[in-house]
Prior knowledge:
Chain A has helices at 3-14, 21-25, 44-55, 61-65, 70-80. Chain A is mainly alpha-helical. Helices cover 34% and strands 19% of the residues of chain B.
Amino acid sequence: xxxxxxxxxxxxxxxxxxxxxxxxxxxxxxxxxxxxxxxxxxxxxxxxxxxxxxxxxxxxxxxxxxxxxxxxxxxxxxxxx
Amino acid sequence: xxxxxxxxxxxxxxxxxxxxxxxxxxxxxxxxxxxxxxxxxxxxxxxxxxxxxxxxxxxxxxxxxxxxxxxxxxxxxxxxxxxxxxxxxxxxxxxxxxxxxxxxxxxxxxxxxxxxxxxxxxxxxxxxxxxxxxxxxxxxxxxxxxxxxxxxxxxxxxxxxxxxxxxxxxxxxxxxxxxxxxxxxxxxxxxxxxxxxxxxxxxxxxxxxxxxxxxxxxxxxxxxxxxxxxxxxxxxxxxxxxxxxxxxxxxxxxxxxxxxxxxxxxxxxxxxxxxxxxxxxxxxxxxxxxxxxxxxxxxxxxxxxxxxxxxxxxxxxxxxxxxxxxxxxxxxxxxxxxxxxxxxxxxxxxxxxxxxxxxxxxxxxxxxxxxxxxxxxxxxxxxxxxxxxxxxxxxxxxxxxxxxxxxxxxxxxxxxxxxxxxxxx
Lengths: 81, 425
């Protein structure tokens, strides 16, 4: 998988949940999903479901718990690639 | 020392119009919002017509973010649109979502009769039964909890006073207005959004169709289907939407120089106890009379001072009984009665939203000085012949309209009646 493509896909998945759209303009691997993008923590469940659907993978709860940044999600997906 | 309570904002999304101006025009022009709906025919409904607000797909993104809409069903969307409209119409500014400010003086009682049944039926049950609980995501609870519509409104408007969702079937919206009125009157809040909302869904309406209480005789003529007070009334037409009023203490309204549409003079709610002819689905006429009399007594007006009645009047066998109860409760002979009309003739019966939408209609009628016509009762029910001169078929201008009574009666034998008066300081 192409990391840039995965990164773009993750950002696209996150976009509807982002409450701070300004932060999306400068989104990077180290951008925090909760602190920077202001995604409601309850919605991480939905983000993980969409990642599972998009990439055809299963994400365990303990793996999901470790995803704090956009880069964490990209790395998790790439590791399955 | 009690506070006087006034209406300073109106929000409505109804099958025949969105927003107070479009809705007022629709009422005045006798515009029906009842349409044929193929999705009801497809699943074998006997009644295939209904009232559903139009163009909501285009409207909703102006009110709600993509993130908010992901966790909202039709009931919640209607409640939110009407509440935001009422808030803005009252001249109040919205507190920014990223602000730490909370409006501790403002709350919401926006009820619903059925709530998030569409979410339950379309998502929760199928996924749970398919052993896909983990696939439900995070948005189920807030859409199916009974308080979901008010809870969402609280977040949108940073409300810090009481926020709750009442539910008393078809009396829900009127009860909400009365409960909010009493709260402000007691000095416990300065401003309350009050009303009701109901989504549209085959799952919300199917039970009523099965009871054979919906009109199944006019699928080919939708605008003639809702026939309150008619000899050919054959059941109600299901409706949906939301109606929300901003109720405010007079002192708060005057302090900020708000426009005042009307004063809430008094209100009363009760239950017939399922006795004396009352049941889960039929009203105890004594309970109805006591409710009307309680509201009139609190309002401090004589029966003769009531200019118009916006009745519950759904287009079932209960219409003649309702009007007989009004006559008995007010002690007025048929030819002495206030003007009688039914907003449901235009929009159908919006269940938990009905009282809210019809209270908005009543206040608009007071504000603009008219009484809208009741459609489809040219063939008046024979038991109503004596009232013929008081039933409004076509809109009449009444610039002198001062007092209007609105009542709702619901399954469970529950009743609500509220009186509004054109504001005079």
